[in-house]
Amino acid sequence: MRLAGDSGDGMQLLGTQLTNTSALAGNDVATFPDFPAEIRAPRGTRAGVSGFQVQFAKEEIFTPGDTLDALVVMNPAALVTNIQDLRKGGILIANEDGFTDKDFKLAKVDANPLEATVINDSYRLIKVPMTQLTRTAVSEHGLSPKIADRCKNFFAMGLVYWLFGRSLDPTLRFIDNKFGKKPDVASANVAALRAGWAFGETTEAFGESYQVEAAELTPGTYRNIMGNQALAWGLVAASKLSKKDLFYGTYPITPASDILHELTKHKNFGVRTFQAEDEISAMCATIGAAFGGTMAVTASSGPGIALKAEAMGLGMMLELPMVVVNVQRGGPSTGLPTKTEQSDLLQAMFGRNGESPIPVIAPRSPADCFDMAIEAWRIATECMVPVMLLSDGYIANGSEPWKIPTLDSLPQIEIQHPVDSNDGEPFLPYLRDENMGRPWAIPGTEGLMHRVGGLEKEHQTGNVSYDPANHQLMTETRAAKVAKIADRIPEQEVYGETSGDLLVVSWGGTYGACLTAVRRCQEAGHRVSHAHLRYLNPMPRNLGDLLKSFDRVLVPELNMGQLRMLLRSAYLVDCIGYNKVQGKPFAVSELIEQIEALVPAAVAV
Amino acid sequence: MSLPVLKAADFASDQDVRWCPGCGDYSILAQMKKVLPELGVPREKIVFISGIGCSSRFPYYMNTYGMHSIHGRAPTFATGLKSTRPDLMVWVITGDGDALSIGGNHFIHVLRRNLDINIVLFNNRIYGLTKGQYSPTSTEGQVTKSTPMGSIDHPLSPLSVALAAEATFVARSLDAHVKHLGEVLKRASQHKGTSLVEVYQNCNVFNDGAMAYAQEKKQRADNVVELEHGKPLVFGKDNEKAIRLVGTHLEIVNRNDVPDDDLLIHDEKDPNPSIQMMLARMRYPEMPEPIGILRDVDNVSTYDEQINAQVDLAKQTRGEGDLEKLFHAGDTWVVG
């Protein structure tokens, strides 16, 4: 279902609460918050519509769903911008009080859409005077009408909870935590919530409520988690696992800022957050902290990563471990700050001057951000290199149930700093170990004083060198170091057979949609499999053979074909692209359509 | 255990120094090597960080830890390093182009944060490494490779910028006045907070003699006033001239004409930077230019101190971070 209203209507809060409550009821959940870049676009206009889509199910799900079974709209702008996603016969709940002549003008609609025949014929429309009912419900709490009207999202919430048989308890606890210090606001919100529930139960408009039973997930303790939160927790965990304090240097940017907000809450883990004066400073401070022996991380989104490029190149040249997170958004330039896209893959691969390869990995879902953050730091320390972690707005703001790991199931990250061997030999800061990493000798260590810099280094000694053969050697060494990581990462997994008519190859946040589409096509009898890449540089060592085992390869991406270009050049395999850049995730149905167009007719199962 | 006594030579790295013969940088390097042994800080606890430019080759020549970074950004590397390793003594070596042009933003912000580091800004009023373009401190009308008809930019003074950015230690010295330079560097190292030392440095290839009025001994007496805390600002061959504050401006007076009580007494400790700003704005040839410590204010918290204090406080009040507790905080549910 989707909840849509004005930016200030509290739709994101409503959505988050419904998600948590559904997760606590044991459903599998997947969410898609969708909001404008403007904090408060003009009230009531189409530009100001903020939406939150959530799918909850009794079976395992991987996307927030293509079409809506239910839609809640707070005003005409929300209705006209969202109605096309509601399935025929779906439930449409409208806040009747938000549909006045003034609202029609703001939304640029000629007449009341709630009276339109097409709306009434196509959907189960339920008109609820939410503003009036909320005002009545909270009247005893002595709030101004303006404040009282802000409670109407809780009324809507109560109504939705009734419709799906949800418990009010988690939200009552939330209200107590959030508004505990303002008892009048807290009790007004509780009153609105209960009034919404009661309205659902007493009115005859609905007729029935729906029960969505608990999903069958792997046994364990679960919580609901958002991508950016999972990423931040993964970084904190990685710092603990490697016995290092965490330094996080960053500059605010959508949609990465929530990582900063989360990390700065955890100073008691030894986390130091630095809000820099600009993106460049954030990157360079991260390198400075890495030089000092700290776990150093920076994060941004595309435009900020562009600014960090020169410094990232230095980090690669200095061969110091650090993690650079890019929570991608729609580009180019300022692009679509609050919308999702996967168009920074080539920037991650090549967006620095000179030959400057760095490892690139990408989480596939909100919860996977936790594991991949740890993996990024593991790779960085193992071979002394900055690692790019490519998240995106869709998984950063989306949420799903996360099976809380036991601490002993997490990888240990061993880090050793060299000490003076006192053998009279000079210290060699660019001597290589078995992973081709160099020693992480940190200031304060007696006898290991050395200088690093962006000028080409002499092999082993690290002194400045303009020697032609040395430059060739060092360039090849830095590239080989990254390429060799392929020996130590898992082979590419395949969902389905390892050969067949079609292999769908995806990466990043499109995992859920691609997997769901492939599953449905397999169920329909198609010989199609799915390979989802979490490691993009280097790619898994078996990937080339895998691609060649299928008649055709389809690469759906939220860009114009960036992974496809990499696959073609690395493996000389012709890949077919399906490319969408609309700021929106893939719908499962459009992927199925693409797959079906590429495979022979289904064999009977 | 007593610390081994180090000499200047102990701070020399094994790399050949590659500045042009006659460059003012040699003198600054020599003074740095002379001063460091006097500080009692072991070599491995010292880090030199530089940007890009002639001056920025400096770290390669010091037998300490060092980083030759990218253009203009040295203060930011220092911020990451010092915030996480407050035990280290961090020096930033920069130039007029590096600190004031491409790195202007970071220069301001490191000063306002009052990170406990020392910045030595080699000011030769020219781009040397790129072979002679004008810099943000080049004078109006200055003819350079990129300004054949004369520079039309108004120059800025690093000292004024630093004071405006709430710097707590602001000083100037001369590469040619080695004793003075050594003393100023030492004072900078002792200050808690960001210390900015501007050094007039002669580029004998692209801007030779640009600051000869201050550098040359014969001219220096009339064109430079050496600041001393608590003392009047006197200058001239026979200390016959002084500075007086009249209303909101400074003027040169003849000491014979004015009683000593009327002269401006230098106060580097004054938290109000107004008069220090007037000193920073004294420019040749209208006024003598000040060298020495313009400002040295204590008791301002440093960034590195505060960022670590917050971590300590969080640990004290909430206990050492526990992953298990973090993961299970809030709503959870059990399956199976």
From TrEMBL, chain A:
One Gene Ontology MF term: oxidoreductase activity
Record InterPro entries: 2-oxoacid/accept_OxRdtase_asu, Pyruvate:ferred/Flavod_OxRd, Pyrv/ketoisovalerate_OxRed_cat, Pyrv_Fd/Flavodoxin_OxRdtase_N, Pyrv_flavodox_OxRed_cen, THDP-binding, Transketo_C/PFOR_II
Record-annotated Pyruvate/ketoisovalerate oxidoreductase catalytic domain positions: 8-196
EC number: 1.2.-.-
Source organism superkingdom: Bacteria
Residue span(s) of domain Pyruvate flavodoxin/ferredoxin oxidoreductase pyrimidine binding: 247-460
Protein name: 2-oxoglutarate oxidoreductase subunit KorA
Lineage: Bacteria, Pseudomonadati, Planctomycetota, Planctomycetia, Pirellulales
Gene name in the database record: korA
TrEMBL record, chain B:
Keyword Oxidoreductase carried by entry: yes
Top-rank lineage group of the source organism: Bacteria
UniProt keyword list: Oxidoreductase
Enzyme Commission no: 1.2.-.-
Thiamine pyrophosphate enzyme TPP-binding domain mapped to chain residues: 52-199
Gene Ontology terms, MF aspect: oxidoreductase activity
Keyword Oxidoreductase: yes
A Pfam family reported for this protein in Swiss-Prot or TrEMBL: TPP_enzyme_C
InterPro entries listed in its UniProt record: 2-oxoacid:Fd_oxidoreductase (IPR051457), THDP-binding (IPR029061), TPP_enzyme_TPP-bd (IPR011766)
Gene3D superfamilies found in the cross-reference section: 3.40.50.970
PANTHER family: 2-OXOGLUTARATE OXIDOREDUCTASE SUBUNIT KORB (PTHR48084:SF4), 2-OXOGLUTARATE OXIDOREDUCTASE SUBUNIT KORB-RELATED (PTHR48084)
Name the record gives this protein: 2-oxoglutarate oxidoreductase subunit KorB
Species whose genome carries this gene: Stieleria magnilauensis
Gene name per UniProt: korB
